[in-house]
Design a protein that fits this description.
Layout: E1 2-7, E2 10-14, E3 25-34, H1 37-44, E4 59-63, E5 69-72, E6 75-76, H2 82-85, E7 96-97, E8 109-113, E9 117-119, E10 135-142, E11 150-157
Antiparallel strand pairs: 1-2, 3-4, 3-8, 4-5, 5-9, 6-7, 10-11
Length: 162
Amino acid sequence: MKLVLRGLERIAIEPTAALEAKTGMTRLFVRYCGICRTDAKMWHEGHRDLVFPRVPGHELLAEDEEGRAFTVWPGRVCGHCRYCTGGRENLCESMQIMGFHFDGGFSHTVLAPTESLIPVPAASPTIRFASPNRWAASSMPWKPSTCKRVNRYWFSAAAPSA
């Protein structure tokens, strides 16, 4: 199954088609996927580069066919622009983001860029929340009648299961 964003504030749960790994991509089985502010923004406001339908989700923990665990750096960069060659890949002029430019982790399976896989050591405890960063920050809008907008922030480190 996968969660598909069909349009602004329109979402559907659909069967997952069999995914075959493509060159430069690895098929992963998603175990956990976090929801971040970007996902909420895509749902509510969209984005100029967002094309529907799209499977969101870029903060995930997944396993490959051999059972090895990975989190995924969600960006795919060109490696050739002035930002990439200057060590500032996060500003790549051709950046492609998982769950935004290509389907993400709100699915049982996902194709992730092989070069973006970050191994999670086998000795690590089970993780309830996965993010490429040790700490993750999220912001969700709240619009009570008394104010225009209040953001609630929380920080969470990966936590072992009970």
